[in-house]
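Page 47, continued from p. 46.
Same chain as before, 183 aa.
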Amino acid sequence: MVIQAGVLPAVRKMKDFEKALEDPSETIVLLDTRLSQLKSMVDYANREKKKVLIHFDLIHGLRADSYGMEFLVREIKPEGILSTRGNVIDLAKKNKLLAIQRIFLLDSLALENNLKQIERFRPDCIEVLPGVIPKMIDKIYHQTNIPIIAGGLISSIDDVKGALDAGAQAVTTSNTELWGYKH
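Result:
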């Protein structure tokens, strides 16, 4: 699966799920969800012809181990996952899911450690947070040659444009006012 360009709705609250289904984006990112809700949400999104990416680390009741991944693959059937954990990225790739490594840019040491982890696990895509640092988006893409998604602190059209102009393939945001934006 290739990540579509543009804004990807990131659903943090159930009330925004319906709005994400109506968004023109073909992909939805599910954040901060309970395991008991996950299957019905993914099934519903699939019926609406939406692909679902699940933030593995934010699913309440799901363990970040091979059994948790096996359950996700067999029962939930998402297109892919996002995670900060290298072992989860590795498990996703072994199970042929799109694997998106989420990294937080806190300082230069965090950047260095994240780049080592990316080199080790070779995710399909990298989500850079905060996504409002165009210079770092460009740097990480050129250093890894892996598609970049910008996320975190995206609060305006200018933030979206800045990230996409810097080379991000897509932007994730839970700000519903930015959903549907075309660059």
